[in-house]
Amino acid sequence: MDTAATFAVRAGTAARRSGRPALLAAAARAAATPLRRTGHTDTALQLLKEAHDALDTAPRLSAAGLDASGMVALTAAYTAAQARMPSTAEQLATQAEQTVARLLRDHGQVPAGAELSPAQCVLYRVGIHQKLGDVDRALAYAAGLEPAVLPTPERRARAATDTARALLAAGDVPTAFVQLQLVERAAPQEARRPSVRALTAEVAARRPDLPGLTAFARRTALRPAT
Question: How far apart, in whole angstroms, are the C-alpha atoms of residue 176 and residue 203?
């Protein structure tokens, strides 16, 4: 296990000892990405599910608690999808959708500063089904997503990135390139991430004739340190 993943596990252990479910949820979500990237998906999923269960057993969750619970479920659903566990991914995504429904029912609206929302659930669904290879379902969710209601430029860029991946899998290269341009428009730094540049390279390999592609690839190339 590399340094980032080891640190993530230690952070989760410290949060667990604190006895505070919301802190465990935050640590679990922070740990999930380095654990997934280093091949420790099972450890990530275990930590996320433990955090979700700790929140789910609380007698009465505040709006912040519901927000944390739903976001942990979404992160766990995406992790399960990456591990090719479709039934687990579906179950967790559904739990997140039920949690946001409860949040809206109990509080009337998504509180300011909360991450969980119906749009956030749809965004994760795009990525979940793309990871599972269910391209038609991923694109159906993408078609129903309104990126403008997502809370940050980075989330809007993620929506476009996940949609581009699904479109490439479906063979629609020109529309995938349109989505990559939306990534740059939403958050230029996101278009320079290695994963997004890999999508740009795939577009270039398959359709080098697309107008604006060469300039886009040049703009989003990783710039050398000065």
Answer: 8
Is residue 5 within 8 Å of residue 41, measured between CB atoms?
A: no
- Cα 138 to Cα 11: distance, rounded to the nearest angstrom: 33
DSSP 8-state code for residue 188: G
Percent of the chain surpassing pLDDT 90: 62
pLDDT digits (tens, 9 = 90+) for 49-97: 888 888 877 667 788 889 999 999 999 999 999 999 999 999 999 999 9
8-state DSSP, 112: T
Residue 217: exposed, middle, or buried by beta-carbon count in 10 A (0-12, 13-18, 19+)?
A: middle
Using CA atoms, how far apart are residues 151 and 97, in angstroms rounded to an integer? 17
Counting Cα atoms < 13 Å in the Cβ hemisphere of 221 gives 10
Of 115, 122, 126, the residue nearest 179 (C-alpha): 126
pLDDT at 224 over 60: no
